[in-house]
Amino acid sequence: MAEPLHRVLWARNAGLADACLRSPFVRGLADGSLDPEAFRRYVAQDAFFLGAFFSAYALAAARTADRMEVARRMHALMQGVLDELELHGAYAERLDIDLDRVEPNAAAKGYTDFLARTAWHAEAGEILAAMTPCMRLYAWLGRRLEAGDHTQNPYRDWIETYASPDFEGLAAELERLLDDLAADLPERASEAYAEAMRHELAFFEAFGG
Q1: CA angle, corner 18, sides to 128 and 108, nearest 5?
Q2: What is the pLDDT of residues 24-57, one digit of tens each?
Q3: Are 160 and 146 in contact (CB under 8 A)?
Q4: Which of these, 120, 136, 111, 121, lies nearest to 203 by C-alpha position?
Q5: How far is residue 139 from each of residues 58, 81, 98, 115, 169, measured CA to CA in Å?
Q6: Which value, in Å, is the radius of gyration of the alpha carbons in the chain?
Q7: C-alpha angle 187/193/197, rounded to 5°?
Q8: For residue 62, how far is the Cα from the chain centroid?
Q9: What is the pLDDT of residues 97-146, one digit of tens each?
Protein backbone atom coordinates (compact mmCIF):
# COMPACT_ATOMS: atom_id res chain seq x y z
CA MET A 1 0.00 0.00 0.00
CA ALA A 2 1.30 3.46 -0.90
CA GLU A 3 2.33 5.79 1.89
CA PRO A 4 -0.32 8.47 2.61
CA LEU A 5 0.48 11.79 0.98
CA HIS A 6 0.69 13.66 4.28
CA ARG A 7 3.40 11.30 5.56
CA VAL A 8 5.38 11.61 2.34
CA LEU A 9 5.30 15.40 2.50
CA TRP A 10 6.19 15.52 6.19
CA ALA A 11 9.14 13.19 5.64
CA ARG A 12 10.41 15.30 2.74
CA ASN A 13 10.42 18.35 4.98
CA ALA A 14 11.77 16.77 8.15
CA GLY A 15 14.92 18.87 7.96
CA LEU A 16 12.87 22.08 8.13
CA ALA A 17 10.90 20.71 11.08
CA ASP A 18 14.14 19.92 12.90
CA ALA A 19 15.42 23.42 12.15
CA CYS A 20 12.27 24.86 13.73
CA LEU A 21 12.78 22.70 16.81
CA ARG A 22 16.38 23.92 17.11
CA SER A 23 15.51 27.58 16.56
CA PRO A 24 16.34 29.92 19.46
CA PHE A 25 12.66 30.85 19.75
CA VAL A 26 11.45 27.27 20.24
CA ARG A 27 14.38 26.41 22.51
CA GLY A 28 13.47 29.44 24.61
CA LEU A 29 9.88 28.24 24.88
CA ALA A 30 11.10 24.79 25.88
CA ASP A 31 13.26 25.91 28.80
CA GLY A 32 11.37 29.08 29.71
CA SER A 33 14.27 31.38 28.88
CA LEU A 34 12.58 33.18 25.98
CA ASP A 35 12.60 36.97 26.39
CA PRO A 36 9.02 37.96 27.37
CA GLU A 37 9.13 40.78 24.82
CA ALA A 38 9.93 38.26 22.07
CA PHE A 39 6.91 36.21 23.14
CA ARG A 40 4.77 39.35 23.16
CA ARG A 41 5.80 40.11 19.58
CA TYR A 42 5.14 36.49 18.62
CA VAL A 43 1.60 36.53 20.03
CA ALA A 44 0.75 39.65 18.03
CA GLN A 45 2.19 38.30 14.80
CA ASP A 46 0.71 34.83 15.25
CA ALA A 47 -2.76 36.28 15.85
CA PHE A 48 -2.38 38.22 12.60
CA PHE A 49 -1.35 35.00 10.86
CA LEU A 50 -4.31 33.07 12.29
CA GLY A 51 -6.72 35.53 10.73
CA ALA A 52 -5.28 34.69 7.32
CA PHE A 53 -5.29 30.99 8.20
CA PHE A 54 -9.01 31.16 9.02
CA SER A 55 -9.70 32.92 5.71
CA ALA A 56 -7.83 30.21 3.82
CA TYR A 57 -10.02 27.56 5.46
CA ALA A 58 -13.11 29.54 4.43
CA LEU A 59 -12.00 29.71 0.80
CA ALA A 60 -11.13 26.00 0.77
CA ALA A 61 -14.55 25.25 2.24
CA ALA A 62 -16.20 27.34 -0.48
CA ARG A 63 -14.47 25.23 -3.11
CA THR A 64 -15.94 22.06 -1.57
CA ALA A 65 -19.47 23.37 -1.06
CA ASP A 66 -20.78 20.69 -3.41
CA ARG A 67 -19.40 18.01 -1.07
CA MET A 68 -21.27 18.64 2.16
CA GLU A 69 -19.37 16.14 4.28
CA VAL A 70 -16.05 17.72 3.30
CA ALA A 71 -17.43 21.21 3.94
CA ARG A 72 -18.65 20.10 7.36
CA ARG A 73 -15.20 18.81 8.25
CA MET A 74 -13.68 22.09 7.08
CA HIS A 75 -15.99 24.07 9.32
CA ALA A 76 -15.00 21.94 12.32
CA LEU A 77 -11.37 22.81 11.61
CA MET A 78 -12.29 26.48 11.33
CA GLN A 79 -13.71 26.28 14.85
CA GLY A 80 -10.32 25.05 15.98
CA VAL A 81 -8.76 28.25 14.62
CA LEU A 82 -11.33 30.32 16.50
CA ASP A 83 -10.45 28.45 19.70
CA GLU A 84 -6.77 29.19 19.09
CA LEU A 85 -7.57 32.86 18.55
CA GLU A 86 -9.32 32.87 21.92
CA LEU A 87 -6.08 31.68 23.50
CA HIS A 88 -4.22 34.49 21.76
CA GLY A 89 -6.85 36.92 22.97
CA ALA A 90 -6.18 35.84 26.54
CA TYR A 91 -2.45 36.29 26.00
CA ALA A 92 -3.09 39.69 24.45
CA GLU A 93 -5.12 40.87 27.42
CA ARG A 94 -2.42 39.73 29.83
CA LEU A 95 0.39 41.22 27.75
CA ASP A 96 -1.41 44.45 26.82
CA ILE A 97 -1.47 43.80 23.06
CA ASP A 98 -4.04 45.49 20.82
CA LEU A 99 -4.69 42.76 18.28
CA ASP A 100 -6.64 45.19 16.08
CA ARG A 101 -3.52 47.29 15.51
CA VAL A 102 -0.91 44.65 14.67
CA GLU A 103 1.48 45.55 11.86
CA PRO A 104 2.81 42.34 10.29
CA ASN A 105 6.55 41.84 10.21
CA ALA A 106 8.23 40.64 7.03
CA ALA A 107 7.98 36.96 7.95
CA ALA A 108 4.29 37.15 8.84
CA LYS A 109 3.45 39.15 5.74
CA GLY A 110 5.36 36.75 3.51
CA TYR A 111 3.52 33.79 5.01
CA THR A 112 0.05 35.36 4.89
CA ASP A 113 0.58 36.66 1.35
CA PHE A 114 1.49 33.11 0.31
CA LEU A 115 -1.62 31.71 2.02
CA ALA A 116 -3.90 34.32 0.47
CA ARG A 117 -2.45 33.82 -3.00
CA THR A 118 -2.89 30.06 -2.73
CA ALA A 119 -6.37 30.27 -1.22
CA TRP A 120 -7.68 32.60 -3.91
CA HIS A 121 -6.18 30.88 -6.93
CA ALA A 122 -5.65 27.18 -6.16
CA GLU A 123 -7.82 24.11 -5.79
CA ALA A 124 -8.88 22.97 -2.33
CA GLY A 125 -6.24 20.22 -2.14
CA GLU A 126 -3.42 22.65 -2.83
CA ILE A 127 -4.83 25.11 -0.28
CA LEU A 128 -4.79 22.38 2.36
CA ALA A 129 -1.22 21.49 1.41
CA ALA A 130 -0.28 25.10 2.20
CA MET A 131 -2.06 24.90 5.56
CA THR A 132 -1.18 21.44 6.87
CA PRO A 133 2.46 22.19 7.81
CA CYS A 134 1.39 24.76 10.40
CA MET A 135 -0.91 22.33 12.20
CA ARG A 136 1.35 19.30 12.00
CA LEU A 137 4.48 21.24 12.95
CA TYR A 138 2.87 22.78 16.04
CA ALA A 139 1.51 19.40 17.18
CA TRP A 140 4.94 17.86 16.64
CA LEU A 141 6.70 20.64 18.52
CA GLY A 142 4.21 20.49 21.36
CA ARG A 143 4.81 16.79 21.89
CA ARG A 144 8.57 17.29 21.97
CA LEU A 145 8.47 20.24 24.29
CA GLU A 146 6.13 18.61 26.80
CA ALA A 147 8.80 16.13 27.97
CA GLY A 148 10.07 16.99 31.45
CA ASP A 149 8.74 19.24 34.19
CA HIS A 150 7.19 22.47 32.93
CA THR A 151 5.39 23.48 36.12
CA GLN A 152 7.61 26.56 36.51
CA ASN A 153 7.86 27.35 32.81
CA PRO A 154 6.14 30.66 31.98
CA TYR A 155 5.26 29.24 28.57
CA ARG A 156 3.69 26.02 29.81
CA ASP A 157 0.24 27.04 28.50
CA TRP A 158 1.67 27.27 24.99
CA ILE A 159 3.34 23.88 25.32
CA GLU A 160 0.26 22.21 26.79
CA THR A 161 -2.03 23.66 24.10
CA TYR A 162 -0.03 22.26 21.21
CA ALA A 163 0.83 18.98 22.95
CA SER A 164 -2.84 18.29 23.69
CA PRO A 165 -4.79 15.40 22.16
CA ASP A 166 -7.35 17.92 20.92
CA PHE A 167 -4.78 19.78 18.84
CA GLU A 168 -3.32 16.51 17.56
CA GLY A 169 -6.82 15.53 16.50
CA LEU A 170 -7.20 18.72 14.46
CA ALA A 171 -3.82 18.20 12.79
CA ALA A 172 -4.66 14.60 11.94
CA GLU A 173 -8.05 15.57 10.52
CA LEU A 174 -6.45 18.20 8.29
CA GLU A 175 -3.97 15.57 7.08
CA ARG A 176 -6.84 13.22 6.23
CA LEU A 177 -8.50 15.96 4.21
CA LEU A 178 -5.20 16.66 2.47
CA ASP A 179 -4.92 13.01 1.49
CA ASP A 180 -8.49 13.04 0.18
CA LEU A 181 -8.36 16.29 -1.79
CA ALA A 182 -4.77 16.50 -3.05
CA ALA A 183 -4.33 12.96 -4.34
CA ASP A 184 -4.61 14.08 -7.96
CA LEU A 185 -2.18 17.00 -7.67
CA PRO A 186 0.81 15.65 -5.75
CA GLU A 187 3.40 17.94 -7.37
CA ARG A 188 1.53 21.16 -6.62
CA ALA A 189 0.74 19.89 -3.13
CA SER A 190 4.42 19.11 -2.56
CA GLU A 191 5.47 22.59 -3.66
CA ALA A 192 2.87 24.31 -1.46
CA TYR A 193 3.74 22.15 1.56
CA ALA A 194 7.46 22.86 1.24
CA GLU A 195 6.92 26.59 0.82
CA ALA A 196 4.74 26.67 3.92
CA MET A 197 7.43 24.87 5.92
CA ARG A 198 9.99 27.44 4.81
CA HIS A 199 7.68 30.20 5.96
CA GLU A 200 7.23 28.46 9.32
CA LEU A 201 10.98 28.48 9.91
CA ALA A 202 11.28 32.11 8.87
CA PHE A 203 8.42 33.00 11.20
CA PHE A 204 10.15 31.42 14.21
CA GLU A 205 13.50 32.92 13.29
CA ALA A 206 11.97 36.39 13.46
CA PHE A 207 11.59 36.12 17.27
CA GLY A 208 14.74 34.49 18.59
CA GLY A 209 18.49 34.56 18.40
Answers
A1: 50
A2: 999 999 999 999 999 999 999 999 999 999 999 9
A3: yes
A4: 111
A5: 22, 14, 27, 20, 9
A6: 16
A7: 145
A8: 20
A9: 999 999 999 999 999 999 999 999 999 999 999 999 999 999 999 999 99
